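Work Package 3 (structural annotation) set out to generate three-dimensional models for the target panel prioritized at the project kickoff. During this period the team completed the workflow that converts sequence records into discrete structure tokens, so that structures can be stored uniformly alongside our sequence database. As a representative example, we reproduce one entry of 70 residues exactly as it appears in the project archive.
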Amino acid sequence: RGHATDLHRAAHTLKSTAATFGATDLTSVAQNLERQAKTGIPEGAALLVERAAAELERAIAALVAVRGPR
């Protein structure tokens, strides 16, 4: 149950942060992961984590593009 609690907390934090930056796809994946982790580690948790990582990369690239070169 400890891992599910950690996953739930991490997904919640990611969801909130993604929403702050307007990363709606990442917010959606994190929300789904958070919801499923509430009752334990879901069967498809690894796939959801992979999807979240891919969406995070997209969000980072978008933020870098908006920031422009340094």
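The mean pLDDT is 91.
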